[in-house]
Amino acid sequence: MSTTLQTFAQQAHSLLAADPGPQGREQVRQLLETLVKDQAFIAEYLGDEQPQRRVLYEDQELGFAILGHVFKEARRTKPHDHGISWAIYGQVSGETTMDGWDEIEAAQADKPGKVKLRDSIQLTPGHARVYNEGEIHSPRREGPAKLVRIQGNPHQEQGGRAWEPV
Length: 166
Hints:
Layout: H1 5-18, H2 22-35, H3 39-45, E1 53-58, E2 64-71, E3 75-76, E4 87-93, E5 96-105, E6 113-123, E7 128-131, E8 137-141, E9 145-152, E10 163-165
Parallel strand pairs: 6-10
Antiparallel strand pairs: 1-2, 2-9, 3-8, 4-7, 4-9, 5-6, 5-8
Helix pairs in contact: 1-2
């Protein structure tokens, strides 16, 4: 049986209401790994013709959003965090390399900071990864990919800082 968006959103809401911190997010990550394997859900919400970024659901009470991403080509993002927010990336198709970074020099409002590569993990279909507040990361894709991202405080994302690798 396929998971509906509403059912998934209600389950994520319940988990985050019970524990809005890292442990609750880890439970949502595990739930997301099931969702990104659901072929009926993927067909309905992550079609090839959808825009690159689409808000699928916003939780008004807890302030998180579920987004569908369809990348049609390779893409590399600079190291960043999400400010006071967090994100959970769930890979549907293709692969995403998630680079994790250690800060060497703090970012300023008018100038990017400096970071050193700490690790790289491959997100393959059916896997998900949590990035909590302040965790510096940068996704990169060598080709087409689809993913579902759950973003805490999605309207605060602009508060994230940027860094340059050394």
